[in-house]
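Q: My labmate handed me this sequence with no annotations at all. I'd like to see what the chain might look like in three dimensions before we decide whether it's worth expressing. Could you predict it?
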Amino acid sequence: MKKRTGIEEKVYSTFAEVAGTLGYSPVHGKIIGALLVRGPELSLKDLAEETGYSVSMISLSLDLLELLGVIKKVKKPGDRNLYISLQGDLLGALKSAITIRVQKSIRSTLTDFDKSREELKSLSPAERKRMEKTLEILEKEIKRLERYMNLLSGIRLP
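A: Here is what I predict for the chain of 158 residues:
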């Protein structure tokens, strides 16, 4: 890993922290930070060296960033190296990352609620009724959140 200035280190740590806060790996944030600090384009090897992660770890992490529209991978004719550059809008990518993560969590929660309903059969009638009411309230709120996230994902950023 190359020696960095205090400002560069702050950029790397800030992006790593944001990625971690969203439930992604800090490596995703450090890749973005490295491209901002050292870019506009870095080879896979240079990106690994810059972030302190292995080439294989960087390579795996690039797939998600590419899916989110944050980076672009490029092979140049006559060059065996893979090059990576930032692409698109960072705020838009952040919005996508948040909405994808929350929507996945919503789907998982709704599936868990369905499984919980099966468990209710083993409870006493009074307890079953109380828990069914609780599940109904929670499911209603989760579906409300789902509608909100669907609206949010469709909003164009300024």
